[in-house]
Design goal:
With 311 residues, this protein is mostly helical. Helices cover 68% and strands 1% of the residues. The structure holds 3-methylbut-3-enyl trihydrogen diphosphate (2 copies) and magnesium ion (MG) (3 copies).
Amino acid sequence: MSSSPDTFLTQLSAVASETEALIGHLLAAQSLDGERARPQRLLNAMRYASLNGGKRFRPFLVVASAALFNVPRQRALMAGAALECVHCYSLVHDDLPAMDDDDLRRGQPTAHKKFDEATAILAGDGLLTFAFDILARPETHPDAAVRVELVLALARAAGLGGMVGGQMLDLAAEGRFDGGKPKSFDEAGVATLQAMKTGALFRFACDAGAILGQANAAQRAALAQFGSVVGQAFQIADDLLDVESDAATLGKAAGKDAEAGKATLVGVLGMAKAKDRLHALVAQAEAALASFGASATVLKQAAHFVADRKS
Ligand code: IPE
Ligand code: IPE
Ligand code: MG
Ligand code: MG
Ligand code: MG
């Protein structure tokens, strides 16, 4: 694998367009075996929420992790598309009035603004379920045991003890459930919340590459560590951008976290220390991949992108 500085951006952009095309194809109008019909409004909302130009950084991590083990690219793209469906659903629900109440996502009206709340809720539900449909298909991996392992790992990452659980803690921090009293989180508390709401899906991205590649225990542990650390870094960068950037650059609202009482590391540590932490995490992410040598160069570049990204 080439180690030119553009390698990462070139590969991210290739994965983004392949993922866009794959999800577009999977979410076609034609219903499949076992489905009765695909209601047009729901399909339109699911397509709107998933085909709207996200960075596709999580699918990139699946593809790049899987490439370490020479997994056929189409299999990694399928697992990446499944993960992206869960991510897009999480954004649709995260933006709902009952949650973060946002009007702008990826530079466009949020799903509930474009459609309506009920349609947005169902589009989220549909995308979540669809992710497991994708993982269960033989095109994702010919060995059913591998597919079951992917399904279990994504369920654990997305659900009660992962992303959804983290979203619950995120809302609890705002003080919604104790008569308006914000729940105070120390650094360790914020780390747990963020490891769940964001880190779990990043870790799954890297685990998925290792599962598809039937990697050994040491390789799996290294990728799991890399994914967790990159996830932590990604959310700190998101929280820094909320303070320092603007809606035009981000394609979503800025400057809302502090006012909402979100528990963030920026809130607990302050901007300067949060930036130090971000850079330390990038170094940890690189170190986690040491045993892969030069074949992991693009993943190491990806860790730097997380810290340097502007949107
Ligand atoms: C935003 O994720 C939500 C967080 C977990 C911080 P991304 O920044 O990956 O959003 P898209 O997919 O590129 O729009
Ligand atoms: C998102 O965190 C985490 C999710 C599980 C969607 P944020 O609420 O900070 O994400 P943005 O800033 O709205 O993208
Ligand atoms: Mg949120
Ligand atoms: Mg939000
Ligand atoms: Mg945010």
